[in-house]
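Q: Sequence in, structure out?
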Amino acid sequence: CYTARNTRAFARGIGLIPRTTPVSSPQSNGMAEAFVRTLKRDYVRVNPRPDAQSVIDQLPGWFAHYNEVHPHRALRYRSPREFIAQTCEALSGL
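A: Exactly. Output:
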């Protein structure tokens, strides 16, 4: 409810879909902060970033790697795609 109109317009302008969480949702805040921290540590700091456009151009590849390859401790060192595939496979065998 406190998201600035300009912030939402900027997000749409660069191709993002603004999503918000309930006002009192510390779990969502924690997950978002962990994602941003991981993105900065594992992608931004180790890739060339001469300007903002270079970073924006690299985001799709970073997101794909994060979801398809990057191991996540909470998922027993599997990527989200691996975890989802294995979970669906296990559930289909029930």
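Residues 42 and 62 are 9 Å apart (CA to CA).
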